[in-house]
Amino acid sequence: MTRELLFSRRRALLALALPVVAGRAHAQAWPSKPVTLVVPYPPGGPTDTAARIIGEKLSAGLQQTVIVENKSGASGTIAAQGVARSKPDGYTLMLLATPTLLAAHLMQVRGYDLFRDFTAVATLYDLPLVLVVNPQAMPGVTDLQQLIAKAKAQGGKLNYTSAGQGSFGHLSTEMLKNLAGFDLQHVPYRGSSPAVADLLGGQVPMMFSDLVAVLQHIRAGKLRAIAVGSPQRVPALPDVKTVAEQGFPGFDAVSWGGLLAPAATPADVIARLAADLKAALADAEVQKKLEAAGAYAAWQSPQDMRARMQRDFERWGKVIRDNHITVQ
Question: Which residue of 152, 189, 230, 300 pairs with 123 in a disulfide if CB–CB is 3.0 to 4.6 A?
Fold first, then answer.
């Protein structure tokens, strides 16, 4: 083999290797600019609060700014539609909360499929629900069985409120009604703030709410917690029994949040994000801040988050269908 031919072959092999090397270098360089975390709800709510707490810590791990961008509307579907169309490069992410996961069961979702167009990154937090009553409106109700007895005595005329038609509080109450064999009248509001305001005022006597919205009022004695929806008791309310402990084994009503990336985001970027989020959620200060807001750090791997998405999509979809729940 001549020296010229040998040189030509080496040059050809080098040329073939360059794109691979360049691709690896590009992946290793991520992130080289700020990362946008889209929150599909308004500022100040539980999803936004958790996103900002976790985003701040993630920013330190990535050594890049994490910009929280609120893009609310239609149970998160407007934000999801936009993120699904974004470049799958790891620089645009979305915080998935349970209402967005269940939106396809409740409304006509256009422009994306949550399972086809997104990649799960990690589960971030659990947001337990708590069943609360106004103690002035229901002075004799201190546990779930007393509530059920009162509802049955009123022949299904007892009202309850929620953050809206198809909200997780609404779905959780309907599931409880189905299991316990009693009826209530739903009085939906447009958001948890007005619902809690009228609950405090006594216009409606009870609500299945996320812990964030009512914890301060429980601590102040303005609301009474009679059951929590999670399988285990919550640290913020250690003396309040679960629904399961009060006669309904297997009851599980926990809203949760996780991180999604557009489909086809590089696997090494997903792995880096998942690892950094695991470290962020293991931080005692992050856990303390989340718990102060009524949420609990609950990291799960991309594979486990995907399985949880599928499981909850099917389980709550059945509740929606069985109770003929729709959103106009």
Answer: 300
Average pLDDT value for residue range 142-154: 96
- How far, CA to CA in Å, does 307 sit from each of 78, 156, 283, 302? 24, 37, 25, 9
CATH 3.40.190.10 domain range(s) in the chain: 130-246
Amino acid at 109: V
Beta partners for residue 264, in sequence order: none
CATH 3.40.190.150 intervals, the chain: 34-127+255-322
Using DSSP's 3-state secondary structure scheme, residue 31 falls into: coil
Q: Taking a C-beta distance cutoff of 8 angstroms, is the pair 291, 128 a contact?
A: no
pTM of the model: 0.86
CATH assignment, 34-127+255-322: 3.40.190.150
Kindly report the CATH number that applies to the domain delimited by 130-246.
3.40.190.10
Torsion over CA: 70, 71, 74, 78 (sign): negative
State residue 212's pLDDT score.
85
What is the mean predicted confidence (pLDDT) over 112-116? Answer: 96
Rounded distance between C-alpha atoms, residue 189 and residue 51, angstroms: 25
Letter string b/e over residues 37-55, b meaning 16 or more CB atoms within 10 A of that residue's CB: bbbbbeeebbbbbbbbbbb
Query: How far apart (Å, rounded) are the C-alpha atoms in residues 73 and 43?
Result: 12
